[in-house]
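Protocol step 4 of 6: record predicted structures for both targets in the notebook before any analysis. Target 1:
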Amino acid sequence: MQAMLSLKIAVAKFVTARLIGELVAVAYRNKIPFRGLRFSTADPQIHPRVKASLFWGLYESAEIRFVNAYLPRSIDVVELGSSIGVVSCFIRKRIAPECKLICVEADPRLTKQWMVNLRLNQFENNVFLVNKAISYSYEPGKKSTFVIGMKNTEGRLGRAEDGGEEISVECVRLSDIIAEHIEHDFSLVCDIEGSEVELLYREPEALNHCRFAIMEIHKSMLNGKVIQVDETLRRITSELGFKLIDRNGPVVCLAK
């Protein structure tokens, strides 16, 4: 009985969020106000629940709170997993005009909406977009399989196990991004659905000049072994020289 009640509540919340998202999109003509900015959600890949989350002020709330509270203003930023540009806009708003923001997004369809939102909020200055996927299973420049998520926040490298749509994307490593765009110290903002584990274990030297990081850590597989969130966090703080400043679930804020 309790399980059935919980299921009904979950379904009701799902339906309500979807309906509100659809209504909000119509009311604001797909330019939804969010924390003092506006974001275009016209792309059909943006799920109505994401639109509702923007309207309620909940979208990527931990990442945005950490950006606003802790992100250093005076050094360049590399953002991995930029999606439709919501967090990108808050990063650009936070850092100094002369600082660069390098945004990396694998899904080419989301990059169009990313560009729209940066322009909509007049945050195009010193912003650069790299339409590639962070991967250590393939050589840089080679292509890998990317699975389109049900929502714009759920795309990932790998194969679709449930009939989801797959596309080919070019791969790149963080060190290549740094070599091309970054000259000094930098901050990292990272939400790449599990690929951060490969980065942390296989290319830790790429973080030698990273002074600050906001990262969503996912349970992931590495060399056939399941790597839990807390295990990855222990590696970051005990072996890579970072100190934990703040945490909200899997989203952590770190500094050297």
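Target 2:
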Amino acid sequence: MEKLYKEMSGEKLEILAVSVDAAGKKDVAPFMEKRKLTFQPLLDPKSRISSLYLTTGIPESFIINQNGIIVKKIIGPTDWSTPEAYKYFRELIKLS
């Protein structure tokens, strides 16, 4: 995600990582720092997002267009730094 975030810096793409870790910032901040992640983490220690988005496992990724519509849900880890991923997001941005 970090590579995608940096590759598309300045384009109409935003990455929000949501942590449902009960410890909140205490655990999330060291995780972000260790991996040198620069996108914004959101904290949801009460897991409210889980019921809103009907999540079933971690990690899960939701691609949401500029109209707020979920256009894709991906369950499990994904390599976001591939040329195909960059192309996908650039095409999605053009459609918005």
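Step 5 preliminary note on target 2. The mean pLDDT is 91. Helices lie at 2-7, 25-34, 48-53, 83-95.
Proceed to step 6 after PI sign-off.
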